[in-house]
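Forwarding the complex inputs:
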Amino acid sequence: MNDVILSGRGLVKHYPIKGGVFRTTVGQVHAVDGVDLDLRAGETLGVVGESGCGKSTLGRLLMCLETPTAGSLIFDGEDVLKKGATELRHLRRNVQIVFQDPYTSLNPRKTVGDIVAEPFEIHPEVVPKKGIRTRVQELLELVGMPPEAMNRYPHQFSGGQRQRIGVARGIALNPKVLICDEPVSALDVSVQAQVVNLLEKLQRELGLAYVFIAHDLAVVRHISDRVAVMYLGKIVESGDEEQIYEHPTHPYTQALLSAVPVPDPTLRGRREQIVLTGDVPSPANPPAGCRFHTRCWMAQEICSTKEPELISRDDQMGGHVSACHFAAVRAPEAPAQA
Amino acid sequence: MADMYDEGLAMVEATGRGTIDLEQSAARLLKPPSRREMAKRPSIHGTVVLDDHHTWTPTDGRLLTVDDLHVEFRMREGVAKAINGVSFHLDQRETLAILGESGSGKSVTAQAIMGILDTPPGYVGQGRVEYCGVDLLTLAEKSRQHVRGDQIAMIFQDALSSLNPVFPVGWQIAEMFRVHRGMNRSDSMARAVELMERVHIPAAKQRVKSYPHQFSGGMRQRIMIAMAIALDPAVLIADEPTTALDVTVQAQIMDLLKDLQAESGMGLILITHDLGVVADVADRIAVMYAGRLVETAPVGPLYATPHHPYTLGLLESVPRLDSKLGDVLPAIGGLPPNLLAMPAGCPFHPRCRYARAECGQGAAPELVVTEPGRAVACPWWDRLEANHE
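Prediction (whole assembly, two chains):
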């Protein structure tokens, strides 16, 4: 596949835990623990998982905001981590990020115009200095903001408008990839739909590829072509949108999907819900074997000893991989368990 | 493209339509109302003192009646009318969901009922909050304290900032018994352990002395719930109880609330913006927009045939888990109105796709009963249905 533009192989990020009198390293938080993924040009890859599963860290690794502990990051056929600063610049120019919180990710002391123009200071080759102002106006118009917004400050805008400003900054350098880290989680329902539509419009017009990180499974389904489900620093299942949402094979995906409330009161009491007991184990000390076995209702001997591989266990499921020894599409009524 | 641009201009546009008197708002900006003018505005101060052993008995199962409640925030920039005449009621064993976006006044409504509004700047301008036949707003602070926690309890959204970080959780739960029931330390701690078991916190006995930061988000929310139900309140107000939680934990917490309600028969007011959660648990729904109720209805009919354009827009704009990819989400354009400068007429009309010229004039439409148990604040609701189908 030659249209893959960004791929990670065996990405690992461990954070040291310091303790004791001499602040020595006493442990490691396994935030991301061996993730392989491929992003193709113009597609949207959704990454879902509970908080603390490492999805945001993965997003930051993909644009080298965090240096991976191990693994390689290939952009345009080059391993970015092995090369020098030039390759890194090239990566950063082409991979941009939109953050979750539009209140803290915009500098309150800069005008909107300055915020959107900031990427051009670091990458002056993109737009000549004289053209910056026009380009910023274009960008603001593209994200549906009035050009007068240039001279105003972030606090003068609502959450949805600020997120538009964040998107404008993200696309300023004409990147090929935009990493969206929970871009709509902080927004109200009606405004959320506006921003989702904006992202889809920009993708159609500019041919962007998105890594869409979110915990809202419905929004991810709406926007994604392919979806990866993460649990405790690992991808447990990935496939295209239909495979994941209609035929999930990993018990965690099944539980996650069944837990999402559906806005339809006629389904009340008729939907089978798998309510997982307990909380996500600490990533500082992940369980041996399958990481999900402590909460899994299907767990058996083998699950606590042998770690399942992320492979396709059924020949018919092209590209649909699942890290479970007993991966199978289940009828929703099978695991009736409280 | 053009309509995206319009959305951004919505605020400017609202003024351009002549819905806000430009001169008036300019004058307001130049000369903010003085402190004395602010103090002259009417507000309710309670003085009635109840007997300490007052017994609260609901008549005909009606626990709470809120009638024409007005709350405003008096600030230097002007008076923000956060709630403008909200009326609803709550029966025993019933779950009423108040649905709205941020800034719609749903949390302020809860604070006014509880009597925990920040005063100043927040004042209850007028209205009644009747609990078992007594208007809570007329009660003196001391008497309200007896109602708060004992009769009406509340769960907040952010459990970490709502719990005191320097006291063990058991101590904080036990405080309810010490303050309201005059229990001693050891008895109240024993009750705290019981409560923690009741909200399914594993190893409650060992964890009673742990501090809030030692618990996960879901467990912290359980502790909040334990505190709220400690004194067996008749009304529980849950203000976005699951918004900060993951879906798997959210399901656990909603199940817990459902079970507790079934056990004790309390009335539950669920404040949320999540249409999915509401569909699963609510009996009745009240939709709020810009400090007003725009629609009240039983849950089934509301989802099947929304009468208010705002409700319809909300329902349409939520992506569905069981729906297909590719369609453009029908978003509601524009932004919620500025509470300092509310548009004339219907507060929703600048964003309403069915708006007519008449909608931007006169007073905001009142809630009108359309069928038994349903009311809507839109005079054109029957046309909406025709448009919808």
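Chain A touches chain B through 55 residues (CB under 8 Å).
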